[in-house]
Amino acid sequence: TARLRAGLKRTREQLSGRLAGVFGAHAAVDEALYEELEAVLLTSDVGVAATAHLLDALRQRARKQKLTQPAELKEALQEALLALLCPLAQPLDVSSHRPFIIMLVGVNGAGKTTSIGKLAHYYQRQGRSVLLAAGDTFRAAAREQLEAWGARNHVTVVAQSGGDPAAVIFDAVNAAKARGVDVVLADTAGRLTTQLHLMEELKKVKRVIAKAQPEAPHEVLLVLDANIGQNALAQVKAFDDALGITGLILTKLDGTAKGGVVAAIARERPVPLRFVGVGEGIDDLRPFDAREFVQALFD
Ligand code: GDP
Protein backbone atom coordinates (compact mmCIF):
# COMPACT_ATOMS: atom_id res chain seq x y z
CA THR A 1 0.00 0.00 0.00
CA ALA A 2 2.87 2.38 0.78
CA ARG A 3 4.32 1.63 -2.64
CA LEU A 4 1.01 2.25 -4.37
CA ARG A 5 0.61 5.46 -2.42
CA ALA A 6 4.07 6.57 -3.52
CA GLY A 7 3.31 5.51 -7.07
CA LEU A 8 0.11 7.52 -7.19
CA LYS A 9 1.77 10.60 -5.71
CA ARG A 10 1.37 12.79 -8.77
CA THR A 11 -2.24 11.88 -9.43
CA ARG A 12 -3.02 12.37 -5.77
CA GLU A 13 -1.33 15.77 -5.65
CA GLN A 14 -3.28 16.85 -8.69
CA LEU A 15 -6.64 15.44 -7.66
CA SER A 16 -6.63 15.43 -3.91
CA GLY A 17 -4.90 18.82 -3.61
CA ARG A 18 -7.45 20.46 -5.84
CA LEU A 19 -10.37 18.65 -4.26
CA ALA A 20 -9.24 19.90 -0.87
CA GLY A 21 -9.26 23.38 -2.39
CA VAL A 22 -12.81 22.98 -3.67
CA PHE A 23 -14.25 21.41 -0.55
CA GLY A 24 -12.35 23.80 1.69
CA ALA A 25 -13.44 26.93 -0.16
CA HIS A 26 -17.16 26.44 0.40
CA ALA A 27 -19.07 26.74 3.63
CA ALA A 28 -21.98 24.73 2.31
CA VAL A 29 -22.89 22.33 -0.48
CA ASP A 30 -24.09 24.62 -3.24
CA GLU A 31 -24.20 24.88 -7.01
CA ALA A 32 -20.83 26.66 -7.20
CA LEU A 33 -19.21 23.75 -5.40
CA TYR A 34 -20.62 21.24 -7.89
CA GLU A 35 -19.36 23.35 -10.76
CA GLU A 36 -15.84 23.56 -9.37
CA LEU A 37 -15.88 19.86 -8.64
CA GLU A 38 -16.88 19.16 -12.22
CA ALA A 39 -13.95 21.23 -13.49
CA VAL A 40 -11.46 19.39 -11.26
CA LEU A 41 -12.67 15.97 -12.38
CA LEU A 42 -12.63 16.94 -16.04
CA THR A 43 -9.06 18.21 -15.84
CA SER A 44 -7.95 15.07 -13.99
CA ASP A 45 -8.71 12.85 -16.99
CA VAL A 46 -11.84 11.40 -15.41
CA GLY A 47 -13.63 12.20 -18.69
CA VAL A 48 -17.01 13.67 -19.51
CA ALA A 49 -19.15 10.57 -19.03
CA ALA A 50 -17.63 9.46 -15.72
CA THR A 51 -17.67 13.02 -14.39
CA ALA A 52 -21.38 13.38 -15.20
CA HIS A 53 -22.03 10.00 -13.60
CA LEU A 54 -20.16 10.90 -10.41
CA LEU A 55 -21.86 14.29 -10.11
CA ASP A 56 -25.30 12.73 -10.59
CA ALA A 57 -24.53 10.21 -7.88
CA LEU A 58 -23.41 13.01 -5.54
CA ARG A 59 -26.45 15.19 -6.17
CA GLN A 60 -28.81 12.29 -5.57
CA ARG A 61 -27.06 11.32 -2.40
CA ALA A 62 -26.93 14.90 -1.14
CA ARG A 63 -30.65 15.26 -1.75
CA LYS A 64 -31.60 11.94 -0.14
CA GLN A 65 -29.40 12.27 2.91
CA LYS A 66 -29.72 16.04 3.13
CA LEU A 67 -25.97 16.55 3.07
CA THR A 68 -25.02 20.16 3.71
CA GLN A 69 -21.35 19.96 4.68
CA PRO A 70 -18.64 19.92 2.01
CA ALA A 71 -16.74 17.31 4.05
CA GLU A 72 -19.75 14.99 3.82
CA LEU A 73 -19.82 15.47 0.08
CA LYS A 74 -16.13 14.66 -0.16
CA GLU A 75 -16.77 11.37 1.58
CA ALA A 76 -19.68 10.71 -0.75
CA LEU A 77 -17.38 11.34 -3.73
CA GLN A 78 -14.87 8.85 -2.42
CA GLU A 79 -17.64 6.26 -2.10
CA ALA A 80 -19.08 7.01 -5.53
CA LEU A 81 -15.65 6.62 -7.09
CA LEU A 82 -15.13 3.34 -5.28
CA ALA A 83 -18.50 2.05 -6.51
CA LEU A 84 -17.54 3.05 -10.05
CA LEU A 85 -14.13 1.35 -9.93
CA CYS A 86 -15.10 -1.82 -8.06
CA PRO A 87 -16.30 -3.71 -11.16
CA LEU A 88 -12.82 -3.26 -12.70
CA ALA A 89 -11.16 -5.10 -9.84
CA GLN A 90 -11.23 -8.70 -11.01
CA PRO A 91 -7.92 -10.37 -10.26
CA LEU A 92 -6.62 -12.69 -12.96
CA ASP A 93 -6.87 -16.36 -11.97
CA VAL A 94 -4.28 -18.38 -13.88
CA SER A 95 -5.01 -21.67 -12.14
CA SER A 96 -8.00 -22.55 -14.33
CA HIS A 97 -5.87 -23.89 -17.23
CA ARG A 98 -2.41 -25.32 -17.74
CA PRO A 99 -0.72 -23.83 -19.58
CA PHE A 100 -2.59 -20.59 -18.96
CA ILE A 101 -1.89 -18.53 -22.04
CA ILE A 102 -1.73 -14.76 -21.80
CA MET A 103 -1.36 -12.73 -24.97
CA LEU A 104 -0.12 -9.19 -24.36
CA VAL A 105 -0.94 -6.44 -26.82
CA GLY A 106 -0.39 -2.69 -26.89
CA VAL A 107 1.40 0.04 -28.78
CA ASN A 108 5.19 0.34 -28.65
CA GLY A 109 6.45 2.09 -25.57
CA ALA A 110 3.35 1.28 -23.49
CA GLY A 111 5.45 -0.96 -21.26
CA LYS A 112 4.61 -4.39 -22.65
CA THR A 113 8.05 -5.96 -22.42
CA THR A 114 8.69 -4.53 -18.96
CA SER A 115 5.28 -5.76 -17.79
CA ILE A 116 6.02 -9.24 -19.13
CA GLY A 117 9.23 -9.29 -17.06
CA LYS A 118 7.34 -8.14 -13.97
CA LEU A 119 4.53 -10.65 -14.55
CA ALA A 120 7.01 -13.50 -15.00
CA HIS A 121 8.56 -12.55 -11.68
CA TYR A 122 5.13 -12.25 -10.05
CA TYR A 123 4.07 -15.75 -11.14
CA GLN A 124 7.45 -17.29 -10.36
CA ARG A 125 7.15 -15.95 -6.84
CA GLN A 126 3.85 -17.82 -6.60
CA GLY A 127 5.75 -20.99 -7.46
CA ARG A 128 4.48 -21.19 -11.03
CA SER A 129 6.64 -22.03 -14.03
CA VAL A 130 6.67 -19.44 -16.79
CA LEU A 131 7.59 -19.44 -20.47
CA LEU A 132 7.95 -16.34 -22.62
CA ALA A 133 7.17 -16.08 -26.31
CA ALA A 134 8.94 -13.32 -28.24
CA GLY A 135 6.13 -12.55 -30.63
CA ASP A 136 7.35 -9.09 -31.57
CA THR A 137 9.52 -10.33 -34.42
CA PHE A 138 9.35 -6.88 -35.97
CA ARG A 139 11.75 -5.27 -33.49
CA ALA A 140 15.02 -7.07 -32.72
CA ALA A 141 15.34 -4.95 -29.58
CA ALA A 142 12.08 -6.32 -28.19
CA ARG A 143 13.31 -9.89 -28.62
CA GLU A 144 16.69 -9.07 -27.09
CA GLN A 145 15.09 -7.34 -24.13
CA LEU A 146 12.90 -10.37 -23.49
CA GLU A 147 15.82 -12.79 -23.89
CA ALA A 148 17.97 -10.79 -21.49
CA TRP A 149 15.17 -10.83 -18.97
CA GLY A 150 14.68 -14.58 -19.42
CA ALA A 151 18.41 -15.33 -18.99
CA ARG A 152 18.63 -13.28 -15.81
CA ASN A 153 15.65 -15.04 -14.25
CA HIS A 154 16.07 -18.55 -15.67
CA VAL A 155 12.92 -18.41 -17.72
CA THR A 156 12.74 -20.07 -21.14
CA VAL A 157 12.19 -17.63 -24.00
CA VAL A 158 10.96 -19.01 -27.30
CA ALA A 159 12.21 -16.69 -30.02
CA GLN A 160 13.18 -16.58 -33.67
CA SER A 161 14.90 -13.75 -35.46
CA GLY A 162 12.61 -12.30 -38.10
CA GLY A 163 9.94 -14.78 -39.07
CA ASP A 164 6.26 -15.02 -38.42
CA PRO A 165 4.98 -13.91 -34.99
CA ALA A 166 2.17 -16.45 -35.07
CA ALA A 167 4.65 -19.26 -35.77
CA VAL A 168 6.86 -18.22 -32.83
CA ILE A 169 3.91 -18.17 -30.46
CA PHE A 170 2.57 -21.47 -31.83
CA ASP A 171 5.95 -23.07 -31.05
CA ALA A 172 5.95 -21.49 -27.61
CA VAL A 173 2.53 -22.89 -26.74
CA ASN A 174 3.56 -26.36 -27.87
CA ALA A 175 6.80 -26.13 -25.88
CA ALA A 176 4.81 -25.08 -22.81
CA LYS A 177 2.44 -28.03 -23.23
CA ALA A 178 5.32 -30.47 -23.65
CA ARG A 179 7.06 -29.17 -20.50
CA GLY A 180 3.98 -28.77 -18.34
CA VAL A 181 4.56 -25.03 -17.94
CA ASP A 182 1.96 -23.12 -15.90
CA VAL A 183 1.90 -19.69 -17.55
CA VAL A 184 2.80 -18.54 -21.06
CA LEU A 185 3.35 -14.83 -21.60
CA ALA A 186 3.23 -14.00 -25.29
CA ASP A 187 4.65 -10.67 -26.41
CA THR A 188 3.32 -9.18 -29.66
CA ALA A 189 4.21 -6.30 -31.96
CA GLY A 190 2.93 -2.79 -31.26
CA ARG A 191 3.98 -0.64 -34.18
CA LEU A 192 1.59 2.22 -34.72
CA THR A 193 2.32 3.29 -38.27
CA THR A 194 0.42 0.51 -39.99
CA GLN A 195 -2.26 -0.06 -37.44
CA LEU A 196 -4.70 -1.90 -39.65
CA HIS A 197 -2.04 -4.40 -40.53
CA LEU A 198 -1.11 -4.70 -36.86
CA MET A 199 -4.66 -5.64 -35.87
CA GLU A 200 -4.75 -8.28 -38.62
CA GLU A 201 -1.45 -9.69 -37.36
CA LEU A 202 -2.76 -9.80 -33.79
CA LYS A 203 -5.97 -11.52 -34.88
CA LYS A 204 -3.89 -14.13 -36.67
CA VAL A 205 -1.76 -14.68 -33.57
CA LYS A 206 -4.94 -15.18 -31.56
CA ARG A 207 -6.33 -17.70 -34.06
CA VAL A 208 -3.07 -19.63 -34.17
CA ILE A 209 -2.90 -19.82 -30.37
CA ALA A 210 -6.39 -21.35 -30.42
CA LYS A 211 -5.13 -23.95 -32.91
CA ALA A 212 -2.30 -24.93 -30.60
CA GLN A 213 -4.55 -24.94 -27.54
CA PRO A 214 -8.36 -24.92 -27.71
CA GLU A 215 -10.00 -22.15 -25.60
CA ALA A 216 -6.74 -20.19 -25.58
CA PRO A 217 -5.61 -17.47 -25.32
CA HIS A 218 -7.18 -17.48 -21.86
CA GLU A 219 -6.42 -13.81 -21.45
CA VAL A 220 -5.78 -11.00 -23.94
CA LEU A 221 -4.18 -8.22 -21.93
CA LEU A 222 -3.95 -4.69 -23.31
CA VAL A 223 -1.01 -2.75 -21.89
CA LEU A 224 -1.67 1.01 -21.63
CA ASP A 225 0.56 3.90 -20.67
CA ALA A 226 -1.35 6.06 -18.16
CA ASN A 227 0.46 9.16 -19.47
CA ILE A 228 -1.75 9.23 -22.54
CA GLY A 229 -4.77 10.10 -20.38
CA GLN A 230 -8.04 10.16 -22.30
CA ASN A 231 -6.37 8.50 -25.30
CA ALA A 232 -6.15 5.35 -23.20
CA LEU A 233 -9.90 5.03 -23.53
CA ALA A 234 -9.66 5.30 -27.33
CA GLN A 235 -7.03 2.54 -27.33
CA VAL A 236 -9.17 0.29 -25.15
CA LYS A 237 -12.05 0.69 -27.59
CA ALA A 238 -9.89 0.18 -30.69
CA PHE A 239 -8.19 -2.97 -29.40
CA ASP A 240 -11.39 -4.35 -27.88
CA ASP A 241 -13.41 -3.83 -31.06
CA ALA A 242 -10.74 -5.43 -33.24
CA LEU A 243 -9.52 -8.20 -30.99
CA GLY A 244 -11.72 -8.63 -27.94
CA ILE A 245 -9.58 -7.91 -24.90
CA THR A 246 -10.23 -9.51 -21.52
CA GLY A 247 -8.02 -7.40 -19.27
CA LEU A 248 -5.87 -4.30 -18.92
CA ILE A 249 -2.53 -3.34 -17.46
CA LEU A 250 -2.17 0.37 -16.80
CA THR A 251 1.53 1.26 -16.60
CA LYS A 252 3.53 4.29 -15.47
CA LEU A 253 0.94 5.55 -13.02
CA ASP A 254 3.93 6.75 -10.99
CA GLY A 255 4.97 9.24 -13.64
CA THR A 256 1.65 10.89 -14.34
CA ALA A 257 -1.17 12.91 -12.84
CA LYS A 258 -3.63 11.25 -15.21
CA GLY A 259 -4.68 8.34 -13.02
CA GLY A 260 -8.27 9.60 -13.26
CA VAL A 261 -8.52 7.86 -16.62
CA VAL A 262 -9.30 4.67 -14.70
CA ALA A 263 -12.71 6.19 -13.93
CA ALA A 264 -13.29 6.98 -17.61
CA ILE A 265 -12.50 3.38 -18.54
CA ALA A 266 -14.79 2.10 -15.79
CA ARG A 267 -17.67 4.17 -17.10
CA GLU A 268 -17.23 3.78 -20.85
CA ARG A 269 -15.53 0.45 -21.52
CA PRO A 270 -15.25 -1.51 -18.29
CA VAL A 271 -12.63 -4.10 -19.17
CA PRO A 272 -11.16 -5.63 -15.98
CA LEU A 273 -8.06 -3.76 -14.84
CA ARG A 274 -5.85 -6.68 -13.85
CA PHE A 275 -2.64 -4.88 -12.88
CA VAL A 276 -1.25 -1.38 -12.40
CA GLY A 277 2.39 -0.42 -12.94
CA VAL A 278 3.74 2.04 -10.40
CA GLY A 279 7.47 2.03 -11.16
CA GLU A 280 10.30 0.51 -13.16
CA GLY A 281 11.31 -2.04 -10.52
CA ILE A 282 10.52 -5.72 -10.86
CA ASP A 283 8.03 -5.56 -7.98
CA ASP A 284 6.27 -2.46 -9.23
CA LEU A 285 3.34 -4.26 -10.81
CA ARG A 286 0.39 -4.87 -8.54
CA PRO A 287 -3.03 -6.43 -8.90
CA PHE A 288 -5.57 -3.62 -9.05
CA ASP A 289 -7.44 -3.12 -5.80
CA ALA A 290 -10.20 -0.50 -6.09
CA ARG A 291 -10.34 0.37 -2.40
CA GLU A 292 -6.58 0.68 -2.07
CA PHE A 293 -6.51 2.78 -5.23
CA VAL A 294 -9.22 5.22 -4.11
CA GLN A 295 -7.64 5.51 -0.68
CA ALA A 296 -4.24 6.25 -2.21
CA LEU A 297 -5.85 9.03 -4.23
CA PHE A 298 -7.58 10.74 -1.32
CA ASP A 299 -5.42 10.22 1.78
P1 GDP B 1 7.09 -1.78 -24.93
O1 GDP B 1 7.58 -1.08 -26.15
O2 GDP B 1 5.60 -1.70 -24.83
O3 GDP B 1 7.60 -3.17 -24.80
O4 GDP B 1 7.63 -0.91 -23.71
P2 GDP B 1 8.82 -1.21 -22.68
O5 GDP B 1 8.47 -2.36 -21.82
O6 GDP B 1 10.11 -1.26 -23.40
O7 GDP B 1 8.74 0.09 -21.74
C1 GDP B 1 8.98 1.40 -22.21
C2 GDP B 1 9.58 2.23 -21.07
O8 GDP B 1 8.62 2.41 -20.04
C3 GDP B 1 10.78 1.57 -20.41
O9 GDP B 1 11.76 2.57 -20.16
C4 GDP B 1 10.22 1.04 -19.09
O10 GDP B 1 11.19 0.98 -18.07
C5 GDP B 1 9.16 2.05 -18.77
N1 GDP B 1 8.08 1.53 -17.90
C6 GDP B 1 7.29 0.47 -18.08
N2 GDP B 1 6.38 0.33 -17.08
C7 GDP B 1 6.62 1.34 -16.21
C8 GDP B 1 6.01 1.78 -14.98
O11 GDP B 1 5.03 1.22 -14.45
N3 GDP B 1 6.54 2.91 -14.39
C9 GDP B 1 7.59 3.58 -14.96
N4 GDP B 1 8.03 4.67 -14.33
N5 GDP B 1 8.17 3.21 -16.10
C10 GDP B 1 7.70 2.11 -16.73
Write a brief caption for the model.
It catalyses: GTP + H2O = GDP + phosphate + H(+). The protein is α/β, with parallel strands linked by helices and 299 residues long.
Describe the protein:
The chain is of the alpha/beta class. It contains 12 helices and 8 strands. The protein has an 8-stranded mixed beta sheet with strand order 3-2-4-1-5-6-7-8, with helices on both faces. Helix 3 (31-42) packs antiparallel against helix 4 (48-64), helix 4 crosses helix 5 and helix 8 packs parallel to helix 9. The longest helix has 18 residues, at 195-212. It binds guanosine-5'-diphosphate (GDP). Guanosine-5'-diphosphate binds next to helix 6. The site of guanosine-5'-diphosphate has 19 residues, from helix 6.
Task: Provide the spatial order of strands within the biggest beta sheet.
Answer: 3-2-4-1-5-6-7-8
**Uncertain stretches:** none
- Major sheet, described briefly? 8 strands, mixed
Number of strands: 8
Structural class: alpha/beta
Bound molecules: guanosine-5'-diphosphate
* Average pLDDT score: 93
Q: State the end-to-end CA separation.
A: 12 Å
Strand content: 5-15%
Output the radius of gyration: 21 Å
Instruction: Identify the overall geometry.
Output: elongated
Total DSSP helices = 12
Helix content: 40-55%
Order of helices and strands: HHHHHEHEHEHEHEHEHEEH
Enzyme class: hydrolase
Family: Belongs to the GTP-binding SRP family. FtsY subfamily.
EC number: 3.6.5.4
Protein name: Signal recognition particle receptor FtsY
